[in-house]
Write a structure and sequence with these properties.
By secondary structure, the protein is mainly α. The chain has helices at about 10-35, 40-45, 50-75, 80-100, 110-125, 130-135. Keywords: Membrane, Transmembrane, Transmembrane helix.
């Protein structure tokens, strides 16, 4: 490698970036669908159209944040790596809170968020991924 040449991004980091992009796009799509829920008769009659719209808008903004962090991780930004890690653990915390508040015993969100967190965070902080960010 010559001086000034950037090290090649490891495949594990690329995998994490792709997962973050997929998650961000899915969050945006779910946010848009949530916004459309405000037009259901139940939302109109229940007076929850505004909260549903605000929730959907928040979901869209959160998805855009995840995509922005994924772009930063792809460029090798340590701040984006830390932010992406924080966002993944925040999502896991929300899944646990939802499990406790709903009290329905449905662990599917916690399990899927745990798997996503491990698949995204571990490659960023271990092995070749860690060395990639350390070289910056």
């Amino acid at each position: 490698m010559t001086t000034g040449e950037r090290p090649k991004r490891p495949g594990a980091v690329t995998f994490s970036v792709v997962l973050m992009y997929i998650g961000g796009i899915a969050q945006i799509l779910l946010g848009v669908l949530t916004i459309f829920l405000r037009y259901t008769p139940e939302a109109q009659s229940g007076g929850v159209a505004l909260p549903v719209t605000l929730l959907g808008a928040g979901m869209v903004l959160f998805g855009l944040l995840v995509i922005g962090l994924a772009s930063g991780v792809a460029r090798g930004s340590s701040a984006a790596r830390s932010g992406g890690t924080a966002v993944m653990f925040l999502g896991l915390a929300f899944a646990v809170v939802d499990l406790l508040v709903a009290a329905d015993g449905d662990w599917s969100a916690v399990i899927s968020q745990s798997i996503a967190t491990v698949l995204v965070v571990v490659p960023l902080w271990v092995g070749r991924g860690r060395r990639y960010f350390d070289s910056r």
